[in-house]
Amino acid sequence: MLLIGGSRSALGLLAVRRACCLSRATHSSPHALEYKPIKKVMVANRGEIAIRVFRACTELGIRTVAVYSEQDTGQMHRQKADEAYLIGKGLPPVAAYLDIPDIIKVAKENDVDAIHPGYGFLSERSDFAQACADVGVRFIGPSPEVVRQMGDKVEARALAIRAGVPVVPGTDGPITCLSEAQEFSKTYGFPIIFKAAYGGGGRGMRVVKEYEELEENYQRAHSEALAAFGNGALFVEKFIERPRHIEVQILGDKYGNVIHLYERDCSIQRRHQKVVEIAPAVQLDPHLRDRLTADSVNLARQVGYENAGTVEFLVDKHGRHYFIEVNSRLQVEHTVTEQITDVDLVHAQLRVCEGRSLPELGLKQDNIRINGFAIQCRVTTEDPARGFQPDTGRLEVFRSGEGMGIRLDSASAFQGAVISPHYDSLLVKVIASGKDLPAAAAKMHRALAEFRVRGVKVRSTAGYFTLLLFKLHFRWRSSMSYENCLHVSLLCNGQRCFQCHSHSKGKAA
């Protein structure tokens, strides 16, 4: 939690009236000349993240602008903004949100001061950040150069090495042919992993466990990266088996101040996509936590990082950590960090973009405290019984789980909503908070059990989470280590999730 003057501030000084901020900027701020208030924000995105940013803007007295594709005419994010404009007319559904010239044109025509990219789409495109700067519209995120550096995994890796941050053994640059991958495997052995050099989210990522699989996986990874990011360049790393995926939330301002807001455990994944996130990481050695957070802050300072971002690591079974990448944007799972620190990250993003320093916002490292645990589950319109294939249609019935300790972030989660086949299958993010992990897991278990959805396949996805959390909850109460508990939870992934109930016999009683 954020402690100021010995008392807990639910909004952490970030929801102070704009009039007070203006007065302080005029009379007492050491950076008064740098302060430029934001009056109107466009979100170059859709769905729940657009609504999340609109809500923060409204709380700070900032007018909001939505953009929408032809397929999103009836979507909720359009209704939640003060103004809404069509973009990408005649373009395919996803391409509309990637139409930089049209987005910039709408922003300029409607006196937009700043653009928030959300996550996905253009959020990590340095050319978009530069296009905003070129027309005098502020980009709510790092500078174009930092976005470029962090978006290039090879350059980000080199920067991490320069900052003294440990990295997984890998190629120094993108490979250009299969023979380079073969040479790497001879040096470091199997398993290895191919990764897209210019994108993330699990696309273009292939694990190779033996030589016979090398050529096929190289071709598939190249094709996936090319289709997803327009560039099929790959690099190769030694694959760390059964790691924990730990990420550190960072926040920087325009004056060189950088803080961390502790870590999240995102180890429970499906096809390299996060499905459950926990903050803080459970049973994490305090010395390891100190190393992770210190490395994250040092790397951010080295590149002059501004605004919110995430530094991601793998932690092996021996407690060694390795840098993976920096996500130069707000993460889907930022919610769990907000719940345990009482810091509104979107408020902070907006204030930093205006020119506020972190100390002015009360965001000093010594003030950031962890208060309890939080878990996020991504409820999606996918059917585990059919290999998690996305489902579409109209929601005929929707009733969510609610109550104390439950937060819901959504955009299409209401009766009558049409689930489109064109975009991400996320329906609602369910965030549970409690004094410890068992309390948070129990609240999540109860909330998911209360969900009632008809019209699309969601119910079995919620059931999958419910069983997973059941195991996590009871094994945490037992003497089993978190690593083994996590492994059992991962075994519950996909179609196997309803077949391994025997694992919990005895321990769950």
Count of discrete alpha- or pi-helical segments spanning 4 or more residues? 16
Strand content: 15-25%
Note poorly predicted spans. Answer: 1-33, 474-480, 486-509
Walk across the major sheet and give the strand order.
15-14-11-12-13-16-23-21
Give the distance, in angstroms, between the N- and C-terminal Cα atoms.
34 Å
Structural class: alpha+beta
> What is the name of the CATH topology of the largest domain?
D-amino Acid Aminotransferase, Chain A, domain 1
Radius of gyration: 22 Å
Q: What general form does the structure show? A: globular
Mean pLDDT: 85
Number of strands: 24
The CATH class of the largest domain is: Alpha Beta
What count of structural domains? 3
The CATH H-level superfamily of the largest domain is ATP-grasp fold, B domain
Domain Biotin carboxylation: 37-489
GO cellular component, one term: cytoplasm
Domain ATP-grasp: 157-354
Keywords: ATP-binding, Biotin, Ligase, Nucleotide-binding
